[in-house]
Amino acid sequence: MRVASMALLCLGVVMASLFGARNGDAYSDYRAAVAAEQPATLPGPQARLNGWLSVGGVGWGAGVVLVVAGAVLARRQQAADAAGGSSADRVDFGVQVGKVLQEIEQLGALLEPLPMDADQPEVRERLDLMSTDVILPAVDARYQYIARHGLGTFTEYFSPFSAGERNLARCWSAITDGHAVVAREALQRARAAFLEAQQRWEAAEAAL
Fold first, then answer.
1. Would the pLDDT of 39 be above 70?
2. Mean pLDDT of all residues in the chain?
3. Interior angle at CA 119, CA 117 and CA 123, nearest 5
4. 0.70 surpassed by pTM
5. How far apart are CA 181 and CA 18, in angstroms?
6. 50-82 burial string, b = 16+ CB within 10 Å, else e?
7. Domain residue ranges in the chain
8. Residue 14 CA to chain centroid, in angstroms?
9. What is the pLDDT of residue 33?
């Protein structure tokens, strides 16, 4: 639906612009009078609408209809996203954070013996996979959580979640630069942030 709504909006704007570009005779007369510094009255909305329709005809009208249809579909899609869509589309925040914490424990074991100036490509690859497969779906589902708990409560658990995400990025960078100590510290800060996010999520769920 999202692709269809954007396609309708774009097509409608193009059609309405092409068929109604001249704005109608009344508006053209107004612009000419203004250019000649002569008194003139701008045609009202109804007059301009009639002018566009007389100039653009069916093509302009069809463009406007497409714009309206695209806007309606976009609003419906936004409402569906906020409500979580179907059960298959819903992303459980608690489950996602649990997966992150489990992976962090395993990554910590791999980083523990890592000496300075040494690379750990497996950890970097797993951080990348966790970002795309676990963290990103939760970020994309943020409107579901806002609809479920409200913006204020959502912020309480999503702020530490975002902090954890940033520290995972710092861990990745530190590994790349060969700073094993910094990588381990960043991973531990990420773990603490995700634990806080998990606890606040559970509190939000319990309050429903």
1. no
2. 80
3. 140
4. no
5. 62
6. ebbbebbeeebbbbbebbebbeebbeebeeebe
7. 2-83, 93-206
8. 25
9. 57
